[in-house]
Amino acid sequence: MSSFDTVIVGAGAAGIAAARRLVAAGQRVLVLEARLRAGGRAVTDQSLGAPADMGAAWLHFAAENAWTRLADEAGFTVLRREPGWGAAANIGARAPTPAESAAAQANHLHYHELIEATAAAGRDVPLSDILPDDGYRTRFDAIMTWAVGVESRQVSTLDLARYADSNHNWAVREGLGAVVAAGAAGLPIEFGSAVTAIDWSGPLLRIDCSSGRVAARAVIITLPTAVLAQGALRFTPSLPAIYGDAFQSLPLGVPNKVFFRLGAGQFADGVSRHFIGSDRDTRTCSYVVYPAGQPLLCAYFGGDLSWELEQRGELTRFALDELRRIFGADFVSGLGASIATAWGTDPHARGSYSAALPGKAHCREILARPVMPQLQFAGEACSTQYYGTLHGAWLSGVAAAERLL
Questions:
Q1: What is the three-class DSSP state of 183?
Q2: Where in the chain are the domains?
Q3: How big is the CA angle at 202 (ends 3 and 19), to the nearest 5 degrees?
Q4: Are strands 212-221 and 375-377 parallel, antiparallel or unpaired?
Q5: If DSSP codes are grouped into helix, strand and coil, which group holds residue 369?
Q6: For 154-195, how does the pLDDT look when each residue is reduced to its tens digit (9 = 90+)?
């Protein structure tokens, strides 16, 4: 049985970050990854003839994000421009008037003031309990499905209030997933090796995986909480109950994407732009034309709509129907090939990014707390300020490595 200083379970962003730090410190490390690739929920697809980020696509907190530096060092093209989200986004094919943009911005700020006041009062309740039922509510509820990944009734006010403001959100022309994959180059990763059990009863931890058994002085687990909640990993002895509660209380929302290849003459100016399908219905998409400068149209789904359509295999059909309503049948018939994600049914993810249930915001801190010095969890779900981002995953992975060192 081979033995290592540290075994890392999962070669996503957090696992890569931890492995890079420990290898640099001279440790003997092994990363066990169930997929046949690195990156986890960050992956760039090339099947449409242009890079399409199927998972993570934005360098949130870009100026301080380690992935920005790694992208620059590896020769990737970081597009240092903001995405154009917010009140100025088109509604369908129509640009909002200055008055409409100002009203949307004012309402958005008012909503967040309510959230901040609720959190300051120590209340961790469903977001839907504190929001007014006014003319902006539908649009805000739709934004929550894209930004947090779940419906407002499933959003913790305290969790949302703790999230830091990302002033810079940049894309990568060649794909952010490609950057994350490049960050794993040269690391000791064993692909196709799913970990099934960890025995932490002795001085050496024993790790069972599909390729056999290994031993290590320490283990860092970076699997998504939704996978852990399903019991995919057996622990001997059982973990303290607070960790099982944390897995269940930090489920993953299921945002999905459909990418279409743009046809000849469609948005021929090549300018990246953002629009939403509707401001009168929460069951709508957020769209980006020329994401990361590529000749693609991306439809972004969130919340219940995304999960329901994924299960029925109807994400592409919904996007085409909405685009037909906005731009007409000729536009839709001119679109090229498409590709859709399915993060909710992906057995290695079971979702896209974590959202604390109401009353459970504290579970992020619990998950980030080592079970014992030699057994730790890491990943975006462990971050109170940067959850749902590669930035948060990186910081969590490095923090776990530093604790071991």
A1: helix
A2: 2-42+175-252+357-404, 90-167+255-340
A3: 40
A4: parallel
A5: coil
A6: 999 999 999 999 999 999 999 999 999 999 999 999 999 999
Q: What is the DSSP letter of 277?
A: S
d(CA 182, CA 238): 36
Distance CA 158, CA 252 (A): 17
* DSSP-assigned letters across all residues of 108-140: HHHHHHHHHHHHHTT---BGGGTS--STTHHHH
SS3 of residue 208 by DSSP: strand
How far apart are the C-alpha atoms of 76 and 177, rounded to whole Å?
A: 11
In the structure encoding, which two tokens stand for residue 326, read together? Answer: 């906005």
What is the gyration radius of the CA atoms in the chain, in angstroms? 21
H/E stretch holding 186 reads none
The band of 84, judged by pLDDT with boundaries at 50, 70 and 90, is confident
Architecture of domain 90-167+255-340: Alpha-Beta Complex (3.90)
Quick one: 2-42+175-252+357-404 is in which CATH superfamily?
FAD/NAD(P)-binding domain (3.50.50.60)
Least confident interval from 18-32, 46-60, 93-107, 389-403: 93-107
Q: What is residue 299's predicted lDDT score, i.e. its pLDDT?
A: 98
Give me the percent of the chain exceeding a pLDDT of 70: 100
